[in-house]
Amino acid sequence: MNIVSKISPLWETMPLTKVEEKQETVPGAAFADLFGAAVEAVRQTDEEKAHAQYLLATGQLDNPAELQIASSKYEMSVSLMVQLRNKGLEAFNELMRISL
Fold first, then answer.
1. How many CB atoms lie within 10 A of CB 13?
2. What is the pLDDT of residue 4?
3. Is the pLDDT of residue 86 over 90?
């Protein structure tokens, strides 16, 4: 016969406070990370599009719609990156207009 053990509350097994290392926050780091991710997305989608174009040109692509999907992903990632750049420039210009 199996003995059923008592169920303990979850908070008793977890520490109350997590020991976290303090990380120095660098001004603009969040935007830099976001913009870096956008640039990386553009790079990856460009590689996917170029690979799909190569496969289509060599006759190895079974579904030509894959090239259109890769092209659309690339266009959207470039558009997102440009919009991020524009918003960053607008914010910078707005800060420059503030008089102290």
1. 7
2. 66
3. yes
Q: What is the mean pLDDT of residues 45-67?
A: 94
27 Cα distance to chain centroid? 19
Q: What CA–CA distance (Å, rounded) separates 95 from 89?
A: 10
The CA distances from residue 9 to 6, 14, 16, 19, in Å, are 10, 9, 13, 21
Q: Determine the number of helices (DSSP H) and then strands (DSSP E) in the chain.
A: 3, 0
Q: Distance between alpha carbon 76 and the CA centroid of its chain, in Å?
A: 13
Kindly state the average pLDDT of the residues 43-69: 95
SS3 10: helix
Long-range contacts of 33-36 (CB under 8 A, 24+ apart): 34/84, 35/81, 35/84, 35/85, 35/88
